[in-house]
Amino acid sequence: MLKKINVVLKEKSYPIIIGYKLFNQDCILRYFKKKKKYIIITNNTLLNLCTKHFYKYLKKNNIYVDIIYISDGESYKSLHEVNNIITQLLNKDYGRDTILIAFGGGVIGDLTGFIASIYQRGIEFIQVPTTLLSQVDASVGGKTGVNHNLGKNMIGSFWQPKYVFIDLFFLSSLPKKEFLSGFSEVIKYAIIFDKKFFYWIKSNSCKLKKLDKNALLYCIYKCCKLKAKIISLDEKETSCRALLNLGHTYGHAIESYMNYNNILHGEAVSIGIVLALQTAQVLGILKKNISEKIILLLKFFNLPVLPPKNMPILSYILYMKKDKKNILGKIRLVLPSNIGIVKIYDNISQKIIISAIEKTLKKY
Ligand code: GLY
To answer: Using DSSP, how many helices (H) and how many strands (E) does the chain show?
Structure first.
């Protein structure tokens, strides 16, 4: 039960290793060197899980390992926390032979990767994603960064990990809501690239919800395979990688408006996908019955499909105008015209966006 995918990026290529209880297996040891220092960055919620399994595994095998942990939550994905961790690394005289390990979800992965990219002009890092969302998306592709009050992920870099270790075992420790929120990214991959995968998710949805190992292994493998291909073609999002932002432009606006509190990234992406579907309907490029099929699948995974009731429409516009994909200040959106067919649409007018939000709000 071990699968491997290579992200092909010349000298920056790396493997993604997927399996169950990876850190019980001797074959994983060859990725860790006795001459290096490994510093795990995690959060207080995951500390116990990390110490009991991953940390213990490295320690038992005589690998130098230390842990730094921060508080749990998206609001800690900040420059303040970057400075705090760098201070701890410097206080312990960790040099360029140090390898950081992100043990956690998207927040820990993005933060750790960003620190690795700037610490002493750049050091190596490893991703050990523990949430479904980070296993299928955030841990692969080298997007790192932190949030700014004026927008999500506005400070960051492209810095590829050395390895990505995806252990299904960690998923069983997640709160159900957090686990299920990852399915918005899974469904996103199916809408963008693969109709057959969409129907596979639909037929296996009960197994996936119940954490069936074989179903999850295939699901995660499939998403990582799709992502690896895109990253190999467009590492720095100058072309096709931007398609992966389906649902994220609206989603990021919602997260920013809510100050990254009381909403999980996956939940915001789910609402963002629904708003993108409605936008495509307003533009007349997507049929209502296709949109309904997708919304039904999102709902099956208990994902929210309605925007926050009290978020002013003007706030969407303000945040969306700051989106990194925009060119010359014009709002660009990834929109589907069918399952498996999406395109970037330039210069979407505010009128269209307002109409899509209003129509979705009417469903309350
Ligand atoms: N999460 C989208 C990307 O990595 O490009």
So the answer is: 15, 11
Report the predicted TM-score, pTM, of the whole model to 2 decimal places: 0.96
Give distance in angstroms: CA of 126 to centre of ligand 1: 17
| Mean pLDDT, range 327-338, rounded to an integer | 89
For a mutational test of ligand 1's pocket, the pick from 241, 252, 324, 344, i.e. the residue with the most ligand atoms closer than 8 A to its C-beta, is 241
CA distance 36 to 18: 23
Residue ranges lining ligand 1, Cβ < 6 Å: 137, 141, 143, 241, 244
Give the number of other CB atoms < 10 A from CB of residue 196: 11
CB 3 within 8 A of CB 217: yes
**Which residues belong to CATH 1.20.1090.10 in the chain?**
177-363
Q: Following DSSP, what letter does each residue of 158-203 receive, concatenated? A: E---SEEEEEGGGGGGS-HHHHHHTHHHHHHHHHHH-HHHHHHHHH
User: What are 233-289's pLDDT values in tens digits?
Assistant: 999 999 999 999 999 999 999 998 998 888 999 999 999 999 999 999 999 999 999
The residues of the chain that CATH labels 3.40.50.1970 are 2-174
Q: Can you tell me which residue has the tokens 């809501």?
A: 177
**Which class is 177-363 in CATH?**
mainly alpha
Residue position matching structure tokens 């209502």:
288
Residues 6 or more apart whose CB falls under 8 angstroms from that of 64 comprise 34, 36, 37, 38
Distance CA 348, CA 351 (A): 8
> pLDDT, tens digit, for every residue of 52-68?
999 999 999 999 999 99
Give the type of residue at 210: K
CATH of domain 2-174: 3.40.50.1970
**Contact assessment for residue 164 and residue 17, using Cβ atoms and an 8 Å cutoff:** yes
pLDDT for 326 beyond 90: no
